[in-house]
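Schema walk-through. Below, the input block comes first and the output block second. Nothing else is stored per chain. Lengths vary across the set, and this one has 672 residues.
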Amino acid sequence: MSRGIDEEPHRPDSGEDRHATRPPGPQLGRQMFLWVVIIGAVLVTLLFIKKWDRPVQKAVELKVFEKHLAAGDVEEIVIKGNRVTGALKPNRAPYQKVKVTVNEGYLEASVIDRWKEKVDRLKFEESSMMLPIIAVQVLPMLLLVGILVYYMNRQMRMMSSRDGGFPFLKSGARLAEKEKTGITFADVAGVDEAKEELLETVEFLRNPAKFRTIGGRIPRGILLVGAPGTGKTLLAKAVAGEADVPFFSMCGSDFVELFVGVGAARVRDLFQTAREHQPCIIFLDEIDAVGRKRGTGLGGGHDEREQTLNAILADMDGFSRDDGIIVLAATNRPDVLDPALQRPGRFDRQIVVDMPDLNGRKAILEIHARKIKLAPNVNLGILARGTPGFNGADLEAVINEAALRASTKNKQWVEIDDLEEARDKVRFGRQKKSRVMTDEDRRMTAYHEAGHAIVALLHPDVEPLHKVTIVPRGLSLGMTMILPETDKYGLRKRECRGILTLRMAGRVAEEMFCHDISSGAKDDIEGATELARKMVTQWGMSDKLGPVCYSDEEEHVFLGSEITRAKKHGEQISQQIDEEVRSLLHQAHAEATQMLQQRAKQVEAVAEALLQLETLTSEEAQAIVDGKTTRELLNQRAVEETKRVEAVQESRQMPEGGTSAGDVPAPEGSPA
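--- output ---
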């Protein structure tokens, strides 16, 4: 079963003084390119100079060479080993020399004498050419090494800082301009408090004199904290779109490299670049990649990550301070950050980006729904109520999946059933209608979900039922979805007991009506056990143990904790905790058994309806409990489908500019 549970910012001096100590990076790049061109030209010249000095010659066969001898065209013969080169007389051939390679033993005395008679000169030369070959091959390498040594020596002399001269030590921060982001605070919803605090930062950058008159100082650093998908990076993009100042963005992993010291060098280069453009904003996404606690015993002070963190600490609030630079960072794990990073003067503010509430979810859906066409009868408020626990990324995925589904079915717009299916797909996974299940498995699944549905309908401390189905989705063979009427920020003891009863109802239904149990209750039992243990050890909801925290949540070694930690309680308390957890689960099992025994006929009716219809809404399940038959439900569905088709056809004939999406209430009988 699944639940839908100050002073004006300092500006550096302009002119030549500001650039006097900076390494001439572009000039060095041009010089490097010039040297590469020169080396390439020298290599090409040395490789082909010998060929350019040679007369035009042609390699021929022995019979062609003999033919030139017989015709008297050859005036000189040079023999090097088994290679014979003949210089031709002028204007005897389009080439000046002919070259032939003869077999070993061919150049006998008789052949030499015969050739002497036909030419003016015949001479022998040594075949060794080692010195020219060595000169041609080694000289370019020596020249290249010499130029490289010269360049490195020149770079070491001209480095005015620890980091200058090496391109891979540059930060590589991306400068985001206002016109390129395309995102403003109007595109962000569901995090109103975070937007208000960031608007103060944007206002300071736009009008610093307003804050200077009273003496206020804008926070040096702002840390965005929240679960994944809540919109931290989106807020940073909105700040970049709203602020009229340079916005440099980097990820924490950009500082982590193979070479030791590169991360710290990139931090220094990033802040140096920011000082040249202040006032400005630096955004560090996923800062926990380099900002974890120091002294964990896994590297010590020479650890590369710790050196990068030390550089960030020094540049944010060290000996020299720049009030015109605001550091904006985002993380999912504030608990792992070093305390020195979170103190006032560095990250003065921690803005918690919460999960959106009902109104926030509706606003987020409306923003993402701007890009798609919605049917006139779609009410995004109903969809927002049916998506508790969804973050901004989930809601965006719901809208996108609904648009894809409507396009696949060749619809003109997105309808309410597309949104419902997209919501279930994002939360529970895609339907697996092709999965073949035996009749016994379907029957046991139907009774399992029917047990959940009856408790959800009748138990006063359980949220209202939304939908129950035996269609496999994701890893589950069926599911019962309940829908909270309002957002929940805490659980009462009676609500916890109701949840335990709801989770145990599936297993109880299997025992009562199938006279067997299955592994389908694994997730229910696991969730119920975890909830019962929290009630006993963390929330003080045990009458026997009282309001005492017995939680033994151990942190990981890399967070700075010791490898072994002593427990907060002894073995006797551990045994009592286990007994209390077991007692809560047995009480929930007994309560579910009593409820299902009193409503045995209704459980069987809901199970039979699920076997035939596979999916029941809350209204249909309530109708079954009240005595309506499955055939009557089928007739009702046919009538509602006819009305829906007629309404769609009428809306397609409406002229443009008619009723917009969200203005028409959902039709009667639609899921709530």
